[in-house]
Amino acid sequence: MALTGVTRLGYVHAKVTDMADAKQHYCENLGLLPTTEEDGKLYLKGWDEWDHHSVLLEEGGVGVTKIGFKVNKVEDLDTIEKKAQAYGDVPTERMSAGENAEVSDGLRFRFGGHTIELYHDMTEVGVEVGVINPDSFPQEIKGIGAPILDHALLALDDVDGIERFFMEVLDFYPSERMVADHSEGAPVIATWLSAGNKTHDIAFLKGPDAKLHHFSFYLKDWGAVTAAADLLVHRDVPLDLVPTRHGITRGETTYFFDPSGNRNETFSGAYVMYPDRPCVTWTMDQLGKGLDYYRREVTDTFLTVFS
Amino acid sequence: MALTGVTRLGYVHAKVTDMADAKQHYCENLGLLPTTEEDGKLYLKGWDEWDHHSVLLEEGGVGVTKIGFKVNKVEDLDTIEKKAQAYGDVPTERMSAGENAEVSDGLRFRFGGHTIELYHDMTEVGVEVGVINPDSFPQEIKGIGAPILDHALLALDDVDGIERFFMEVLDFYPSERMVADHSEGAPVIATWLSAGNKTHDIAFLKGPDAKLHHFSFYLKDWGAVTAAADLLVHRDVPLDLVPTRHGITRGETTYFFDPSGNRNETFSGAYVMYPDRPCVTWTMDQLGKGLDYYRREVTDTFLTVFS
Amino acid sequence: MALTGVTRLGYVHAKVTDMADAKQHYCENLGLLPTTEEDGKLYLKGWDEWDHHSVLLEEGGVGVTKIGFKVNKVEDLDTIEKKAQAYGDVPTERMSAGENAEVSDGLRFRFGGHTIELYHDMTEVGVEVGVINPDSFPQEIKGIGAPILDHALLALDDVDGIERFFMEVLDFYPSERMVADHSEGAPVIATWLSAGNKTHDIAFLKGPDAKLHHFSFYLKDWGAVTAAADLLVHRDVPLDLVPTRHGITRGETTYFFDPSGNRNETFSGAYVMYPDRPCVTWTMDQLGKGLDYYRREVTDTFLTVFS
Amino acid sequence: MALTGVTRLGYVHAKVTDMADAKQHYCENLGLLPTTEEDGKLYLKGWDEWDHHSVLLEEGGVGVTKIGFKVNKVEDLDTIEKKAQAYGDVPTERMSAGENAEVSDGLRFRFGGHTIELYHDMTEVGVEVGVINPDSFPQEIKGIGAPILDHALLALDDVDGIERFFMEVLDFYPSERMVADHSEGAPVIATWLSAGNKTHDIAFLKGPDAKLHHFSFYLKDWGAVTAAADLLVHRDVPLDLVPTRHGITRGETTYFFDPSGNRNETFSGAYVMYPDRPCVTWTMDQLGKGLDYYRREVTDTFLTVFS
């Protein structure tokens, strides 16, 4: 595909109620590496990430204050800005270099209470295994050793609207969608949107505006997901969805909560998505199968607990 | 990324010495599904593919006669044609609908003895699990049950040249490259090129022009790769590289030969690639580690056996 | 250990409400092989079993009518009979060859409504892979392809009593035990008893006399257990405990029901048990962790649904 | 089975050329825990072992000076001593408590240059996860985190003889045997002997007397075996047999060398053995398949490198 536009979810700024607890969780359980800690902000990256941070923690409650997508080239910002202006409706503003430490200038949208930034550059600090005849993983890994941020699921009321915006302005496309029922034009309950070959780089679920459902880290396979769950329960981290397969995307998953109540996910599997692959449709009566392929029941929390 | 240009490797036309043997191998061992058999051609698809075929077999020796990449939109053909003309050097021609059964019109390049086609459409026959509240896999799977074609590795003399062509005209980018040594400007021995988020949709290796190294099917994980190898050796299919991890791409792999001597691969793992992820460089003295992360030796056949 | 006495759980005679449905389940889902079907009885074996049958199905409701343990040598029957007589209390009788088709003479006990037989020989039909330079698995496997019966869990009121009988007369020893609480002499709720190096060849749970909790088939690993669950839910077999790790024995497990309501298990993992390994104790307040290491909750059915 | 006689391989006394290197390997790579270090001897145990040590290292070359099997009861020593005397030929002596630190009195045999001890007790130090409502694994694991010693393979000339001795005096039985060819009475090349339900607690291979082939640690599954190999190659530990499946026992395996040249194995899988399971026979022409199910070739070192 053309190497322009959004390439990936680059960062999540998460609020936490207690920084010491949060640091312990993200560094010791998830195994993220702190790159900077200043002004009450903790910057973290996975061992297989090259940019300065993918998770930024700050005290002040729960939820995400914003997420950032990295675009491939500086020129992409202009292109997207023009498309956004033509699209109308969605407030767009320029963001300056330095508004986010280590991050270039960019664009900022607000939709459904969410702040979404685009940027073209971040200080590069390198993957832990290097790039010359590298090993496949680093010698030292803490806890789960999450390699890399993968995607987020955000809640808002206007799922239809944000899906259209992401498709028309940001060139995402849906791999799977959940609709209310089989009727023509049934409301969209959730959408999983890809910017490339992943089943989703971002997903949206009908729910309260401005709320986070979860953000997710990619593990290499089911064995890694279950080993991660073994470790999490051993450390009394509350699991929200025990290791299972999602029917949606076929991905393997565990949901759990950070000490502040933000939901994290470890995720693997899922098929390779291509733009011409037929989009999958789920109906709400099959949400149980879609969420938890084995149990085929919706957890009490899936549609109700956000942060 | 912008949803234009090449989305994936769509088909491989392979020559085989005996169709009955080949059909038995691709259908019973790999588990591909025959969609059409006519005029001495057998069209095959994986259970998780939606287009009419990804592998076409025809008697007449060994090797591939051509490969095809699917582009996202019909307009992409014009864009690419113009870029190719501007690039020069590489003979380009228009291809008509029907030159390949079930395939739309397109473009055709020749480089290093290889014929490379681009097309924007193929008759859609659907994935075996359907697209409404689907199960994660079909009830009936034969042999390995390879879901989908993933990539190919082709040999040619001018690796530098074809890499540049794929980057400049087709918008691919390299995830990993092997060079002769650590010196500045050392010759490129091999390159793994991505059109999206996979570590490679195509790779090229310095070797005899017009030759195939292997084509590859994506399996879900290491367990599937080893189970596939269990089945293959049980059926006396000659393995060329027993199940191992590639240092290159970190992918998990088995190489084996079809009855005609074309090398197949089953492949899983590999990290998620992004355009801004730093490209990995391998030096030839570490080819053993790159090919076979455990054994750290190059097989006798890797650099010498093509079809 | 001395090669005398009970070597393994050899057979389970299960009642089913409808033979056609049961046959479909045990042959197509579990992948057991029918060896004989006569007089309304269906005899089944796993592909990795050598004796004529390990499961016998008969119409007439649900539950097990009896289970049989194979002893190593014919002389063991005398030894055990004498120990049983010395032990007293437990009615013991001789069983003639032919009372069970294909099964030698033996002994029969009744305890807590359960009929337990011992035998020293059964017609041998051979493992499917043979014994000369064998492959690791057969070419043709249906459904899950359960290789071999592993253990059963039976309910009865007098768990203390049957545990003592199995230990003193049959030379079993406990690997893990669940007691009501941490108090000295707290009642035993359940016991997992080994006749060798498995964590359990039989287990008993406090509950209604004469009832079956489940019988279990050994799969090779966690990947096989989850693949089995994938297949079962795909075929709408009701799961009772979705794939998880037991804290008890560390085994990986799925519980599901046959069409008559008998609970089956597919099981893997668990540590290697030795007679000198310290016995593990669980208290009832930790049953959730013991049953489902991830969820740490007891299912509604675990202590209440028997057949 | 009757809870008398040999229950397991309890210890291996290995010679090493450099204690510091050896300690680094066994503690940091294999993850064994040092329990005592005195008089130039390092005592080690796995996290899932309860006795004081399973591996004892001492400087002075390579190989094993002796191995010890634990019997279930002190009386077993008398029984075995009498059987050994009746058997004749094999020199037997009583061993006093304290000849081996932390180990009870016992018996000692010598056969084919090997010293084999039996003991009924060792100081118990407990498994790392405890025995009351335990977790499935400890929080802190180093390197591979090998839980427990599993078996050893020793070389000697008189394989027939030692097999007969282990069967008749020690109540072992063979799960698999390798013979020279298909002829009646073909010489035994190797034998895998079980004392319970494992495919082997000890194995013997025709070769130079008094030599070690390998000793082995049990891992939970194939994923753990490959993860261990990932770690070993990352740390430049020389692999002798890269991760593969043995045809023999179906076990999953990696062979590697400690810094002194003693071969270690990490091992998983293998079927559950029972005394009445038919013994498997391999012929030497199929050793490749037996050793390395995928490659079907014998490594240069398998029959030639001992320590």
UniProtKB/TrEMBL annotation, chains A, B, C, D:
Report keywords, A-Z: Aromatic hydrocarbons catabolism, Dioxygenase, Metal-binding, Oxidoreductase, Repeat
GO MF term set = dioxygenase activity; metal ion binding
Q: Which residues form the VOC domain?
A: 8-121, 148-269
Q: Which domain of life is it from?
A: Bacteria
- Which PROSITE patterns does the record match to this protein? VOC
Record's InterPro entries?
Glyas_Bleomycin-R_OHBP_Dase (IPR029068), Glyas_Fos-R_dOase_dom (IPR004360), VOC_core (IPR037523), XylE-like_N (IPR054560)
Q: How does it assemble?
A: Homotetramer.
The UniProt entry's sequence similarity note says: Belongs to the extradiol ring-cleavage dioxygenase family.
Q: What is this protein called?
A: Catechol 2,3-dioxygenase
